[in-house]
Amino acid sequence: MWTEILTAIALVLVIEGLLPFIAPQTFRDSLRAIIDRNDQTLRIIGLSSMIAGALLISFIR
Fold this sequence. Notes:
single chain, mainly alpha, 3 helices, flat
């Protein structure tokens, strides 16, 4: 089980590193746009992301 968890974390790090590596200016602009959002919008985005991830995991398994 620990191998799967560590593999998943490593994959997240690789995927998250793609945008700053490939397009640093776009990444910077995206961070600025995120900073300008209010807390409720960020919570909705985070919740949507968690639900989508959970659904994807349940679909794959």
